[in-house]
Amino acid sequence: MKKFMEVTGFLLALFGVAGVVRELTDGWFRLLGVTRFLTENVGFLEGREVFANIVIAVLGVVILIVSDRVPRKS
Questions:
Q1: What is the pTM of this model?
Q2: What are the boundaries of each domain within the chain?
């Protein structure tokens, strides 16, 4: 469970940061634009893509912090 949380947290943080960079460069930075599918296809997030990507990145960091507190099974 700990490894799953670490991988999930890392990927969410990476996708969130890449999404913020992509939005700030006006779509020029297309690498890892996975969050584009989340932010562009949800109606209430229209016009708030940077905020949504920041929330995704912060959620990834929170999951990474929580994964450090989960004991590793032997």
A1: 0.83
A2: 2-69
The Cα–Cα gap between 65 and 49 comes to: 25
pLDDT at residue 31, as a whole number: 66
Contact assessment for residue 35 and residue 16, using Cβ atoms and an 8 Å cutoff:
yes
- Those residues whose C-beta lies under 8 Å from the C-beta of residue 40, and which sit 6 or more positions away, are 46, 49
C-alpha radius of gyration, the chain, whole number = 14
3-state secondary structure the chain: CHHHHHHHHHHHHHHHHHHHHHHHCCCCCCCCCCHHHHHHCCHHHCCCHHHHHHHHHHHHHHHHHHHHHCCCCC
Output the CA–CA distances (angstroms, integers) from residue 38 to 34, 45, 65, 69, in the order listed. Answer: 8, 9, 24, 29
